Amino acid sequence: IKNNYSTAPKSLATLRIGEKDYRTDDYTNITPKILSYLNHNLHLKNDNPLSLVRRRIVNYFYSSFTHRGNPTFSVYDNMSPIVSTKQNFDDLLIPDDHPSRAKSDCYYINSTTLLRAHMTAHQSELLRAGLDNFLMIGDVYRRDEIDSTHFPVFHQIDAVRTQRKEQLFEQHPDLHIFEKNFEPTNPHTFKNSIADPTKQSCHTLEATKLMEVQLKNHLIGMVRHLFGEDIKYRWVEAYFPFTHPSWELEIFYENNWMEILGCGIVRNEILANAGPNNSIAYAFGLGLERLAMALYKIPDIRLMWSKDSGFLTQFQNKNVNANIVYKPVSIYPQCTNDLSFWLPSNSSIDTFTSNDFYDLVRDIGGDIIEQVKLKDKFIHPKTKKHSLCYSIVYRHLERTLTQAEVNKIHKEIEEAATKTFNVVIR
Ligand code: FA5
Ligand code: MG
Description:
The longest helix has 23 residues, at 205-227. The protein has 11 helices and 18 strands. The radius of gyration is 24 Å and the shape is globular. Helix 2 (49-64) crosses helix 8. The chain has a 7-stranded mixed sheet. It has a 4-stranded antiparallel sheet with strand order 16-17-15-18. Helix content is 25%, strand content 27%. The chain starts with 13 loop residues before the first strand and ends with a strand. It folds into 2 domains: 37-81 and 116-303, BirA Bifunctional Protein, domain 2 (2-Layer Sandwich), CATH 3.30.930; 330-425, 2-Layer Sandwich (Alpha-Beta Plaits), CATH 3.30.70. By secondary structure, it is of the alpha+beta class. Bound molecules: adenosine-5'-[phenylalaninyl-phosphate] and magnesium ion. Adenosine-5'-[phenylalaninyl-phosphate] is lined by residues 118, 120, 142, 144, 150, 154, 156, 158, 240, 243, 259-264, 283-287, 289-290.
């Protein structure tokens, strides 16, 4: 596939991924570089820090919920990242015009198939399969900025915990999950409202509050299990189309508040559509990279992809609870080159999609691209032509780059930008 960064329509063709051919269309924006990240399963590689964090979290879950000594959670960590728009969005009540569906934010294979943008994409199918307590772990893909904490592929753990009335209100059999006017009604036709910030209209306040307390205690327990009793945290009100009410959890790390997860009470429409219509559930989704970076003091997200033995041996054969502090193998110098161009006369600095440019840079420069920053925007006073200037920071994690080598790649990026976006290099 060619010219996949551009938003221009492409000719009809198919794209082979693994054993399967996918029809491409004007939504296709997945690049060969992104395809090369599939099937690495870093979260399952024993010497990868992501795998250590995964095992610690899974252990915490197994030990938190047992029934007669057996874990009550099942773990799904090997599901294909290729999903339908129904799984990633529709099943989760994400509206048709929601910004998270935009081509500028996701990697689409075609208009109905994409690389999952969150692990929540599997929530409905697993509920439909009859599961009530489960974890979904895997790689997710998003078009985003380029810096030390953002990479187009990262890993998430998502969880769902559902409870029936008898479980939730074991000690208070007189309490109910659903409001009186809801219970006798067919949940498929019942209008569930989220206008009240404290709860969904179908749920009782008691059920919502009890679930909130359990959810928050459970997650704070997890954060303490990872970072120790003294970790500073705070809850922030949030919004997700698939939960209500919703929160985000932030931890205080290196003098900043860092968001580590989103969570909430699952919208009852999702449970009712997928099967269980007599229970209430909470769900959350967390990012493994951020936790691993904070736990092991790993300074750059790209290191998760390192094949350098100097990196991997620091995490190999370690007890999952070992206190590991990453020691930089060595730090090689950065090399920064600017790239300025005039946009074609029919486009403007406000409509130019930076994410298209970032993908092009990443595709040509590969993993030596450390950061791309928009440095300057300029409109020529006479010609009214628009110009953009980006700084590209190059750094190899395992050796020193020469200026000549960087210049060559920089030149290739200039040429590709000229061809793809019809720009004129300044
Ligand atoms: C979600 O992805 C929701 N699906 C989470 C959720 C699940 C909410 C179930 C409610 C119920 P969000 O986009 O905020 O939400 O991402 C969740 C977590 O993934 C973030 O808190 C963060 O830890 C991590 N994350 C998000 N974007 C990035 C990124 N670009 N790089 C690294 N980690 C990221
Ligand atoms: Mg968030």
